[in-house]
Amino acid sequence: MSQIDNETFQGLPGNPVLLSILVVFLFCFFGLRLWYLQIYRGDYFDRKSRDNRIRRNALYAPRGLLRDTNNVLLAENKPSYALSLVREDCPDIEKTLAQVAAWVQIPLEQLRKDYVRGKKRVKPFANQILVPNISFAQVAIIESHALDWPGLKILVRPRRSYPQGPLMSHILGYVAQANEEELNKDSNLALGDNVGKIGLEYTLEGKLRGIKGLNESEVDAAGRTLNEKVLAPSVAGEDLTLSVDFELQKVITQALRPHAGAVVVLNPDTGKVLALVSEPTYDNNSFVDGISVLHWKALLNNSRHPLQNRSIQSAYPPGSIFKLVMAACGLAYGAVTPDEKIFCPGSYKLGNRVFRCWKRTGHGWVDLKRALVESCDVYFYRLGETLGIETISTFARSCGFGRPTGIALPHERGGLIPDSTWKWKRYGRPWQKGETLNVSIGQGSVLVTPLQMAVYIGALLNGGRILQPSLLKDAPVFSRGDLPFDAAIRERITAAMEATVEGRHGTARRLRMKGCRIGGKTGTAQAVNLQEKYENKDTEEIPYRLRDHAWMASFGIRGKQRYVVVTMIEHGGHGGSAAGPVVRAVYEHLFGRESK
Amino acid sequence: MIDRRLVSHVNWAFLGCALLLMGLGVLNLYSASALRVEGGLALDPYYRKQLIWGGIGLCVMLATMLFDYRHLKSLAWPFFILSVLLLACVPFFGKTIYGAQRWIGFGFFNLQPSEIAKISVLLLGAKLLAKISDKLDWLVLFKVMLVGIVPAVLIVKQPDLGSGLTVILLLGGMVIYKGVETKILKGILIVGPLLLPFSWFFLHGYQKQRILTFLNPGRDPLGAGYHIIQSQIAIGSGGFWGKGFLEGTQSQLSFLPEKHTDFAFAVFGEEWGFVGALLLLVLFCMFLYQIVLTSQEAKDQFGSLLCAGVFFYFFLQILINMGMVLGLMPVVGIPLPFISYGGSASVVNFCLIGLVANVSMRRFVFKK
Where are the domains of chain B? Predict the structure, then answer.
């Protein structure tokens, strides 16, 4: 101890309290902070830590399958891959988006725009879908780089597929990614979800969609999933069977091509739709993954309007088949009796104007039945003049015309039954008597859809009930009202329709088939008022746009089988010759080949 | 060399605190090393290494208790010169880890010269200050502070701002404990805060980043702000009772960065809650208070100043680390004694504890 410098004790160095104060300060300072973090804001941080590790993700519900009446699959679900991003896991979003754009070959601008727009709809730590559908090859590339790009995740989701493609497009419609408006309206929809846009997919959305489930998983900081737990299983959408017969649909489409037009086949007693064809058509599969702008424009600008469902969305002048309504109206109001004969000289004079019958030489003396069978215009000119437009329009409306039939498809049109009020509103001019004559033979302003006409023919057969047409096999029969005339009149009209097929002068002679009762009525509706120069020309010699629309309304009965078939061929020319073969093909399929 | 009377004067409360802290540290490291993986927990061997280093530290502590601490006065200068030389060597022979050149490799272990420098500054500071009888005036203050400034500049250049500042603050604490003239104290209190903003221009980019992030962690939650945010979430989500041992989700799922080193206290706070964290804080305060007591009871100025130095050594680390973990200070890479994993830190800690115990057990030598 000798080396130790034995300084004398000089008393304590200064500030003996300083150190103690520092200790007390340390305790108070951090003690308070701990209280603040752990007690005062403990719940908040607890939630934060849960958000960190607990991820809740949707379990996708498979959309309900659609089948035809014979169980042919019409709409199904196939697995598809979507690329999603959890932005809280992604260290550099801009770089990641650039890489994604390179992988899937979409412009970065587009991707960034979608990302920014979608961001606010996605909860923190949830998957935001960047690319709704990527190919298997792309999945392989992305998966192999997964570790370098934290936050990116590939989701497997059910994707809608329509195995029958264009043949069913007008009925089924399609699903596609929900847009801004749909997302705002329905809180159950998430970004990237598909939703029915048109057709049955649209109207049956509530039944088909199902309910998404919820999955909870624990993840670590690198986004790896450790434990998974299903909180709520998803509920699959309802599988539905349609009343539509796909085989029939196919036969009709083949018979109708290459014409543009529509064919409706109904069961008159139930209102079930067996076929609803509109040509030309489109492939609904191309909409599911988002249709390309080019393809979309091509469809929109196609002069034959393939997106138009002609059976319900197009209203045409009915031409002579409107005489089926006029005849009923005349009988119901007592304007004519069945046996009353009118002389047809080939034209009818109203004031200074001459209204001609299609048969220039005239029909001679015609009663109601002959007027229908041979489609005498003069008979109905006179009848129309007697009845007046108000009576005709009221009657036609109570027969179901001028309003949608109520079929479960969107954008159905109601057609048009004109009257003087309508004329005033539309043109600001009074109704002319000549127009009444035009309406009496289904020309002028009167417009009906093929489906409306089918429902009317069905009502003639089923005891006068105007049924709401239905596409679902199990849907109950729903009557929207009764025809405003009695059974005797209905029978007279259906008898006249049968005579139109069976009679020597009937305009629908080509429908005649052995072993079954078939009734029909042709209609040749002017699309435009033809100029003189095209008069008496054959259909082929007239430019397509100016050609007449060809109608054929018919029913066929064999034993218990009862059908209504209505065909409309746009610019097809004469009803009997253009629409007839198509209708015949339908009955041949329905009643079997042997009935030829 | 050691007689029975000295053994009976050992401050057992102090050593008990230290051992308890070390025990809690190892326990906490056991949990902080655990990673939750599919099908259970995976353990890193950090707690075991820490235990070994603790053992080595205890041996070093015993060794430092054996001789009379006054012998250190004569060793203070040579030790200081050695440590400055080591620091000067770092730019030439140093190992670069995490972009900073702070270590010198000795094959089986890496020596961190800044740790040595802290002890040497502490010793030399105590020696120089003990010689001065009056309160310090400007000239003396400058001379004394030079002892800290030389190694501090070398350390800051590594770059290791945290350790450099610790050296200055450590010495500064000792100086103030010793006592300076009132006008100087006033001067420092006024000029210091005024000069602080200018230090901004001497900071590295990443250091500026850290300070900006501290002021607003939300500006980059996945980058610079991540540490601060996740650490507070860990502590805060512990609540009153904590999530339980080995139940800390923030740490086991790796949301908490540096969880076995700088942010080990966050793991503790998450798993043991307010109760546990407060208990640990109390334990630290008791530990510090024992050092304060020893400094009061020391038989000479050197011993008293030595204790004050050790006090500031621990106090500053606790203040800075807990302040950082609790989101009250910018992120500075300073470990929490006993709780954070660190080999040389453990050895140095126990070495200093040994010094305090040494002073404490010899407090009666001259008072008979």
Answer: 4-37+47-361
